[in-house]
Amino acid sequence: MIGAMTALITPFKNNKIDSETFANLIKRQIDNGIDYVVPVGTTGESATLSHNEHKECIEIAVEVCKNTNTKVLAGAGSNSTAEAIDLAKFAQNCGADAILSVSPYYNKPTQKGIFAHYKAIANSIDIEIVLYNVPGRTNSHILPDTAIALSKECKNITTVKEASGDVSKVVEYQSKSNMDILSGDDAINYPILASGGKGVISVTSNLLPKKIADLVHSANNGDLKTSKKINESLWDINKILFIESNPIPIKYAMHIAGLCELEYRLPLTPPSDENMKKIEEVLKKYDI
User: Is 161 a catalytic residue?
Assistant: First the structure.
């Protein structure tokens, strides 16, 4: 799987999904050359959505992206294998192009359990599965050897979203397999692409989709100089968007840019007053 991908926020209004705004945000991504939108991942506050709301977000994304060049990589992970399978089947039946499946969180499975979890999901659907390794969130680490074994066992497991912050993982994967690696950390998008990564799943591209699209496309076309320059220009915003837990800062930034209401699902709350000011100052540097 290759390209520039956006980990979409989920806009709320009166504690319900703001479907009109969500559709408009996706259209903005399409208009700015993003290859895949990624609804209901971590950035989409999936942990506090009901299953019906989760499925609604996938449906909206698929409908808006229909007959465009932008595809849908639907968030469909869970720490319950049965629930993950249910979401995966729904995403496939709805028309999603692929699913993003986070490593099972909280219950701390062994590598054997992780392998069995993903194999069961892969056997339940035909569309592609992107493994999502984010141990800082899940306390569950998909080791490269486990992911590679899955790719050999399951034809629809070909890609890993690597959000461990360890660029060396890209080199390890390339030395042992043909799996595609996607950056899951905006601050190191360029280093991962320059090391052989094939794309990014970006938080920053909610705000600056064309910048992220240009960063990825230039790298994939062999123009690493341009990609590096874009990545460096995004340093300040990439950094500030993680000043508090994602998606707290990006949602506030989207709000002050006039793109959505400022509303979160508890236990997430708006940034501190101090961090609001810091986010506002950084946004002045960018044309959104």
Answer: yes
